[in-house]
Design brief:
Keywords: Flavoprotein. By secondary structure, this protein is an alpha+beta fold. Helices cover 17% and strands 35% of the residues. Strands 2-1-5-8-9-4-3 form a seven-stranded antiparallel sheet. A two-stranded antiparallel ribbon has the order 6-7. Strands 10-11 form a two-stranded antiparallel ribbon.
Length: 178
């Protein structure tokens, strides 16, 4: 196999860390949902998630002010709604109304769960040391919700420029992880 140079602007499509999420916030009476693909697990217990929310995004202000959000995990059947949330700003569009998303009250944070998503993680911001420099928030998952009817959900994975990969077959291999 011969490798050739690869454009640096496309590297994130090779390293994409996980499923595209819908990050929901609530601030000053407005709820919002943004598509988020730049996130990573940082710790198991308590679960810590690091994510980049650009200071140009409407959700940045809400997340910074309230220090809480919900990470909602959509499945492939919501692909168009996820793309629509990513292509529109919450500054000018009520994404829940415009794209047919159903807000549900969370139990520990003010941001809503999204009913159509197969799982939702209520989070609080626990570390902001990298926000000013990298727009990187560290979130602690306070409560997790999942639809037990969806045993192996097919999630979306952003590859860049409108391309997505869909999670497929699950394989099981021996693991020492408990």
């Amino acid at each position: 196999m011969v490798k050739r140079p690869y454009p640096l602007s496309k590297v994130y499509g090779l390293l994409e860390p996980g499923p595209v999420l819908l990050l929901s916030t609530a601030h000053k009476g407005r709820v919002n949902a943004m598509a988020l693909s730049w996130h990573t697990m940082m710790e198991f217990e308590p679960p810590l998630v690091g994510c980049v929310v650009s200071d140009r995004d409407f959700s940045f202000t809400a997340l910074k002010a309230t220090r809480e959000c919900v990470l909602n995990i959509p499945t492939v059947d919501l692909a168009q709604k996820v793309v629509d949330c990513g292509n529109h700003s919450g500054r000018s569009v009520d994404k829940f109304a415009a794209f047919g998303l159903t807000p549900q009250p969370a139990s520990l944070v003010g941001a809503p769960l999204i009913a159509e998503c197969h799982a939702s993680l209520e989070c609080k911001v626990v570390d902001t040391r990298f926000v000013n420099r990298y727009s990187f928030f560290v979130l602690e998952v306070l409560k997790a919700w999942a639809d037990p009817a969806r045993q192996e959900p097919r999630t979306l994975h952003h590859r860049g420029w409108g391309a997505f990969m869909v999670a497929g077959e699950t394989i099981r291999l021996p693991s020492r992880m408990k």
